[in-house]
Amino acid sequence: xxxxxxxxxxxxxxxxxxxxxxxxxxxxxxxxxxxxxxxxxxxxxxxxxxxxxxxxxxxxxxxxxxxxxxxxxxxxxxxxxxxxxxxxxxxxxxxxxxxxxxxxxxxxxxxxxxxxxxxxxxxxxxxxxxxxxxxxxxxxxxxxxxxxxxxxxxxxxxxxxxxxxxxxxxxxxxxxxxxxxxxxxxxxxxxxxxxxxxxxxxxxxxxxxxxxxxxxxxxxxxxxxxxxxxxxxxxxxxxxxxxxxxxxxxxxxxxxxxxxxxxxxxxxxxxxxxxxxxxxxxxxxxxxxxxxxxxxxxxxxxxxxxxxxxxxxxxxxxxxxxxxxxxxxxxxxxxxx
Length: 337
Description:
Blueprint: H1 2-33, H2 38-42, H3 52-61, H4 68-81, E1 83-86, E2 91-94, E3 101-102, E4 107-108, H5 109-144, H6 149-163, H7 166-180, H8 197-230, H9 234-241, H10 246-274, H11 278-284, H12 289-298, H13 302-330
Helix pairs in contact: 1-4, 1-13, 5-6, 5-8, 5-10, 6-8, 7-8, 7-11, 8-10, 9-10, 10-13, 11-12, 12-13
């Protein structure tokens, strides 16, 4: 078990290094490959009225003429030790961890990400709890009642959940439950959890349910397929032949064997949502990481985009590491892998 954990930790660290290199390459190497120059990259850090000489001086001071390896090393060094950005008009300090400095807002990117992260984390965790409970429970019941009216109705709802986009169900939910019935909070409201837990849940209950409706449908179908396959195995018949209660057979033996693929997609889904639920945040007017990324793209603010991408990929790597460790808990055979 210890060896398994050490291998997964080492793999996660290596993957984070690869992710950082790929992220840097996308924003700094690829533009050069397709014909970009240090001056074109530097134009993102100066005003619209900047002269060609100003752009060239800025590119030199920001190190865009340095070899790619040197630029990458300075970028990684800034993450752990902080960085200074000399763009001509002055020297801007970016304390560690420095994921970039926005010359549009004149602020480091990391504090802004910390301001937006609680919204996205609250949205992702609340919705994840709902969709896992609802999806797995629906899938188990459908598998045990295969071919019944309940099974067909549940799979019909699941198909609708997969087919309907979040911006449609989100807007319809707002119109019906917020603006017409007044049961839920209107879009754009968020209260920090530690400030008022009741208002925090009230503001997010509709985004949670709407987002969970989309994901729970996938989990219901996957759980149903896994349970149908697992419940037909020989060890299930053996467990029943031993006289074990049906609840023990279903939960301890059947469901446990069907959880591995569910854990896999759960890690990916949560990791991606923590990186920014773009459509959900835009639909409900929530100022999280997804909305932050959209605003950065529209404003051509490269450091902000890089910060969100790096943070999102880090969330995905960490989520997959947790899933790998959970495999050893759910399936003891994985510990020997």
